[in-house]
Amino acid sequence: MEELQTRLEATERRLREANELLQAQIAERKRAEETFQKAQEYAESIINTVREPLIALDQDLRVVSVSRSFYEVFKVNPKETVGQLIYDLGNKQWDIPKLRELLETVLPEKATFDNYEVEHDFATIGRRIMLLNARQIKRAFGKERIILLAIEDITERRRLEILLSESEERYRRLFETANDGILLLEKSEGNITHANPAVTAMLGYSKEECIGNKLQNIGFSHDIGDFHEIMHTLDRSGIIYYDDVPIKTKAGQTFYVDIYLVDRARLVQCNIRDITERKQAEEALRKSERELKSKTENLEEVNAALNVLLKRVEEGRIELEEKILSNIRELVLPYIDRLKKTQLSDHQTSYLTVIETNLDNIASSFLYHLKMRYLNLTHRELQVASLVKEGKSTKEIAGLLNIAIKTVVFHRNSLRNKLGLKNQNANLRAHLLTFT
Questions:
Q1: Cα(80)–Cα(186) distance, rounded to whole angstroms?
Q2: Is residue 300 situated within a structural domain?
Q3: For residue 402, what are the domain limits?
């Protein structure tokens, strides 16, 4: 009986020890689970904070959890996502052959893959280029593994890279084919990093001779100042211009250029424009201006001499006219007055009247002024105009000039037309009297 009691007490002691051990294990397990829960919550917090979409898969490639950004980017909700096979997500928009290869072939062998690029048409967001990164992570308990898949949308970055590449290609073509010489300088010391064909042809230095040197080493003798100060100025203004700068070629020939320094972020673009032809044209223009000025001065001198000569001729003409008029008045008109007092036939009287009228017109300069103003008047029109001015009728004029009346009418109409009186209610004699 005592032996049985002893055995029971031993068994009870072992049970208590086993129970204490079990309680300790349970407590340890709870602490581990709490730690795991906290770690999982911490990990999910990190996942939800990351900007790029993240998705966690179990070993069967079913979704365990996803980041908030995944829902936002791909426009899905937790109900239709968690627990689903990744290939079935969003109406099978993730059923991508390249992704299958990565998850089912590459990942089991390597445990990770990085920067795999996938281009695909997604039903909700259209065609996108995605950069995929994945890691296999062993859980704390059991042999199960989870796969963490990070997804980065690089569509816009790739578009900008293409645009940048195209822009660089366009710039390269412009750089290579430009008529102006172009040098690219690094900003720290001004060493040449690139030289286009135009500048090598212009200076006579090869591209290899240019690269690594400074402007002063390839013929630029003009002092542009401290290079670092120039960089500060260029940083503020964006462009600096130097005009009429002398440059010496490798062969020793000096010519003149305009230089533009342009800020290009990482480098400085130095444009060099040969202005030899422009300077030659400017010199030719200055020479032409000097010649024109000299010719103008000569013409002014000739014009002044001609004015003096014309003045003298005019003075001589006036003096001669005065002499002729004086002689007519003193030597001719008195005898006409005497003839008028003698007995003359009607015809003689008419002719004498015509002679007297003409001499009077000569004396009054009527015909001279009329002819000088209207050079296209004929001799007969001048005769008719002189008699009309004296108040003679058409019939009287016809008799004095021994022509038909209709001929006089024709000349009167011609005079009105040439004197600008056609279709005007103006008196021909009154108009002619203005020329005396």
A1: 56
A2: no
A3: 343-435
Provide mean pLDDT across the span 55-66: 86
| 430: CATH | 1.10.10.10
Structure tokens at 297: 């001065």
297-320 pLDDT, tens digit per residue, is: 888 888 888 888 888 887 777 677
Give the Cα separation of 408 and 397 in Å (integer): 7
Q: Please indicate, yes or no, if residue 236 is contained in any of the structural domains.
A: yes
For residues 148 and 183, state if they share a domain. no
- Position 202 in a domain: yes
Q: Residue 30's pLDDT is what?
A: 73
Tell me, letter by letter, the H, E, C secondary structure of the chain: CHHHHHHHHHHHHHHHHHHHHHHHHHHHHHHHHHHHHHHHHHHHHHHHHCCCCEEEECCCCEEEEECHHHHHHHCCCHHHCCCCEHHHHHHHCCCCHHHHHHHHHHHHHHCEEEEEEEEEEECCCEEEEEEEEEEEEECCCCCCEEEEEEEEECHHHHHHHHHHHHHHHHHHHHHHHCCCEEEEEECCCCCEEEECHHHHHHHCCCHHHHCCCCHHHHCECCCCCCHHHHHHHHHHHCEEEEEEEEEECCCCCEEEEEEEEEEECCEEEEEEEECHHHHHHHHHHHHHHHHHHHHHHHHHHHHHHHHHHHHHHHHHHHHHHHHHHHHHHHHHHHHHHHHHCCCCCHHHHHHHHHHHHHHHHHHHCHHHHHHHHCCCCCHHHHHHHHHHHCCCCHHHHHHHHCCCHHHHHHHHHHHHHHCCCCCCCCCHHHHHHHHC
Given a contact cutoff of 8 angstroms between Cβ atoms, the answer to whether 359 and 328 are in contact is yes
Per-residue pLDDT band at 375 (split at 50, 70, 90): low
Q: What sign does the dihedral 151-155-161-162 (CA atoms) show? A: positive
Q: Within this chain, do residues 382 and 360 fall inside the same structural domain, yes or no?
A: yes
At 340, give phi and psi (nearest 5°): -65, -25
Whether the per-residue pLDDT at 40 is higher than 60: the answer is no
* 198: number of Cβ within 10 Å: 20
Residue 176 to residue 198: CA distance in whole angstroms: 8
